[in-house]
């Protein structure tokens, strides 16, 4: 079984995490490292994907600044989304040539990781036909936006754990008008450590990887 290194980086800025992903993607392409699974939390940030529409941003730059929210245009797929405290963000850096050269299968697999992890907490989540992401009772709990370069993935998913859902009022999440929810809103305010553990285990199962949690995360991330 191939291995995958897990880096739990805590709360870091979106741009800092993006720069780290770029470095790791370059190393993965060259074969210098194996697959990676980054788990982070971001400060308040709204990101617009390469297929996004500015009309789905419902606030001015001045309003975002006043609310302490950064705005970043990025190269991931998808539309607009929010990242912030209380949300677990996962960035898999995986060479799909060593898994499946199938973008659709990769998206479904990421969804399955979240679905299975939520089931571990007693939350019955699933898919919505025609839409990417993970849903509970008609409300979105997990968003996905990825980028592939020479079959190496970057960006990934965001799972609402104890996220303050009021921040989603600044956007039309992923260009959709459906409501959003979180584990806490569903009565399951799980500790990040537990969520990380379940996501890591389920990622290993879905992708057939032996998950290796790095101890000296800060040093290896530089």
Tell me about this structure.
The protein has 222 residues and is of the alpha/beta class. The protein has one domain: BirA Bifunctional Protein, domain 2, CATH 3.30.930. Helices cover 28% and strands 32% of the residues. The protein contains 5 helices and 11 strands. The strands form 2 sheets. Strands 7-8-9-10-6-2-1-11 form an 8-stranded mixed β-sheet. A 3-stranded mixed β-sheet has the order 4-3-5. Helix 3 packs across helix 4 (192-207). The radius of gyration is 16 Å and the shape is globular. The mean pLDDT is 91.
Structure at a glance:
This protein is of the alpha/beta class and 222 residues long.
Q: Beta-strand percentage?
A: 25-35%
Count of DSSP H/I helices: 5
Quaternary structure classification: single chain
Unreliable stretches, pLDDT < 50, 5 or more residues?
none
CATH class placement: Alpha Beta
Q: Biggest sheet, in brief?
A: 8 strands, mixed
The number of E-state strands comes to 11
Keywords, separated by commas or semicolons:
alpha/beta, eight-stranded mixed sheet, 222 residues, three-stranded mixed sheet, single chain, BirA Bifunctional Protein, domain 2
Write the layout of secondary structure elements.
Elements: E1 2-11, H1 14-30, E2 35-41, E3 45-48, H2 61-66, E4 70-73, E5 80-83, E6 87-93, H3 103-120, E7 126-128, E8 131-136, E9 139-149, E10 152-160, H4 192-207, E11 209-213, H5 217-221
Parallel strand pairs: 1-2, 1-11, 3-4
Antiparallel strand pairs: 2-6, 3-5, 6-10, 7-8, 8-9, 9-10
């Amino acid at each position: 079984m191939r291995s995958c290194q897990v880096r739990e980086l805590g709360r870091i800025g979106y741009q800092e995490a993006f720069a780290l992903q770029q470095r790791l993607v370059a190393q993965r392409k060259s074969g210098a490292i194996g697959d990676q699974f980054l788990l982070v939390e971001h400060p308040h940030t709204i990101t617009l994907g390469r297929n996004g529409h500015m009309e789905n941003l419902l606030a001015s730059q001045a309003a975002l600044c006043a609310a302490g929210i950064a705005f970043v245009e990025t190269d991931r797929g998808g539309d607009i989304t929010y990242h912030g405290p209380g949300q677990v963000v996962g960035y898999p850096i995986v060479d799909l040539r060593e898994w499946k050269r199938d973008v659709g299968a990769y998206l479904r697999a990421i969804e399955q990781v979240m679905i299975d992890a939520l089931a571990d907490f007693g939350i019955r989540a699933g898919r919505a036909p025609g839409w990417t992401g993970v849903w509970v009772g008609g409300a979105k709990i997990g968003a996905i936006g990825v980028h592939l370069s020479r079959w190496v993935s970057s960006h990934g998913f965001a799972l609402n754990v104890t996220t303050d859902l009021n921040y989603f009022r600044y956007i039309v999440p992923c260009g959709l008008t459906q409501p959003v929810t979180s584990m806490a809103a569903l009565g399951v305010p799980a500790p990040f450590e537990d969520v990380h553990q379940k996501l890591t285990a389920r990622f290993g199962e879905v992708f057939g990887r032996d998950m290796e949690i790095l101890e000296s995360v800060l040093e290896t991330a530089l």
